[in-house]
Design goal:
Elements (H helix, E strand, L loop, with lengths): L6 H4 L34 H7 L7 H4 L6 E3 L1 H7 L2 E6 L9 H14 L8 E5 L3 H13 L2 E7 L4 H9 L3 E5 L10 H11 L3 E3 L7 H17 L6 E5 L4 H13 L5 E6 L5 H6 L34 E4 L2 H15 L5 H17 L4 E6 L7 H4 L2 H6 L18
Parallel strand pairs: 2-10, 3-4, 3-6, 4-5, 7-8, 7-10, 8-9
Antiparallel strand pairs: 1-2
Helix pairs in contact: 5-6, 5-9, 9-10, 12-13
The chain binds pyridoxal-5'-phosphate (PLP).
Pyridoxal-5'-phosphate (PLP) binds next to helix 6 and helix 10.
Protein name: Cysteine synthase 1
GO molecular function, one term: cysteine synthase activity
Keywords: Transferase
């Protein structure tokens, strides 16, 4: 359906992203010739990897997707399973939300809602705003962001420096007409050539993962995937990837929702569909939900189960991934890795479990690596003693 700029996204994942045997022959399909290597100096594995890397992509949009699928070595050894993380932090805007941002904009273009010079409006305090800021700049649109005024100045500054017009508004509940999402919708309705992209209930978000994330995972594992798990914010990633993997495997891939404290979806699923009031909170950002969004609704019935992951486990995994794997991950990614480990333990040795590494820890470092913040959150003791030397901020 989406044609513009998605050639690389919808193309089969390149050989460089597939799980490779230890030695493989360099592919001749690369756009660039392999580097010349002196005959006396046989090519190293690294040279072969470079020679089969992707060719040129078209701008920011062309660089979205086809992220590596990273085998987490320590957790794989520990569980006797293959634990694989989709490295979404490698998207050009730095998170999994680049995919959704691109799809909601392309969807608005295709539906004739957005023409050159138009305005995109969204309610977001996080990665979707960052993804949209890049996509809008790359495609020639203005971006207006509404967010609750409880968000840090750092987030406002970041979106402004990326070119967005930012409106921090009082933090009120969704059923209040002054909620930031409703204000975003009204702003779009007031303007010509403007669209409220509505990431929570616009299913172009879910479609990004049906058409890109799911097929990439299937291709990268050569169809050898037993389970998939991740947390939900809008639900686009979980729903779309689950839909694709269920369809392509004839229902064989087991899919699990991973929930942080303060989200209602684990209890919704385990109670057979009872929606309770939200209570509690989590240190994770971008995930946790109080309702079944339109993105999640069509696929929630496909799920095989759900897990709830305590903040103590997520924060410890932030530190483990850094120390053991060299991966500097945000807390939602770490929660997903804990969920993948728990799913692997439930399935038993010999299975392949895939999860999402949503973003890096860069935007969260002042909290996740601060002694004061960890102490205030009563999480300092959750960090294993041998990893506490990473807590370098006061
Ligand atoms: C850091 C992070 N992780 C996970 C998610 C959840 O992704 P989705 O909205 O597709 O459920 C988000 C969404 O904003 C996010 O910012």
């Amino acid at each position: 359906m989406f044609r513009t700029g998605l050639r690389r996204l919808t193309a089969a994942a390149p050989a460089s992203n597939a799980i490779r045997p230890a030695f493989f022959s360099a592919s001749a399909s690369s756009s660039f010739a392999a580097p010349v290597v002196a005959a006396a100096n046989p090519p190293s594995q690294h040279t072969l990897d470079v020679s089969s890397a992707l060719g040129v992509v078209d701008g920011f949009v062309g660089a979205i997707g086809n992220t590596p699928l990273v085998r987490l070595r320590h957790l794989s050894e520990q569980t006797g399973c293959e634990i694989l993380g989709k490295a979404e932090f490698a998207n050009p805007g730095g998170s999994v939300k680049d995919r959704a941002a691109l799809y909601v904009v392309l969807d608005a273009e295709e539906r004739g809602l957005l023409k050159p010079g138009g305005t995109v409006i969204e309610g977001t305090a996080g990665n979707t705003g960052i993804g949209l800021a890049h996509v809008c700049a790359a495609r020639g649109y203005k971006l207006v962001i509404y967010m609750p005024d409880t968000q840090s100045q750092g987030k406002i500054d970041l979106l402004r420096l990326l070119g967005a017009e930012v409106h921090p508004v009082p933090a009120v509940a969704f059923d209040n007409p002054m909620n930031y999402n409703h204000q975003a919708a009204r702003h779009a309705a007031r303007l010509d050539n403007a669209v409220w992209t509505n990431q929570f209930d616009n299913t172009a978000n879910r479609r990004a993962h049906i058409e890109t994330t799911g097929p990439e995972i299937w291709k990268q594992t050569a169809g050898r995937v037993d389970a998939f798990t991740c947390a939900t914010g809008t639900g686009g990633t979980l729903a779309g990837t689950t839909r694709y993997l269920k369809d392509v495997s004839g229902g064989k891939v087991q899919c699990f929702l991973a929930d942080p404290p303060g989200s209602v979806l684990h209890s919704y699923l385990s109670s057979g569909g009872k929606l309770v009031e939200r209570s509690g909170s989590s240190i994770t950002e971008g995930i946790g939900q109080g309702r079944v969004t339109d993105n999640l609704q069509p696929d929630i019935g496909l799920l095989d189960g759900s897990l709830t992951i305590a903040d103590e486990k997520s924060i410890a995994m932030v530190y483990r991934c850094l120390a053991e794997e060299g991966l500097y991950l945000g807390a939602s990614s770490a929660l997903n890795v804990v969920a993948a480990k728990e799913v692997a333990e439930k399935l038993g040795r010999g299975h392949t479990v895939v999860t999402i590494l949503c973003d890096g820890a860069y935007r969260y470092a002042d909290r996740l690596f601060s002694r004061k913040w960890l102490t205030d959150k009563k999480l300092i003791d959750a960090i294993p003693a041998e990893l506490q030397h990473h807590i370098v901020l006061p």
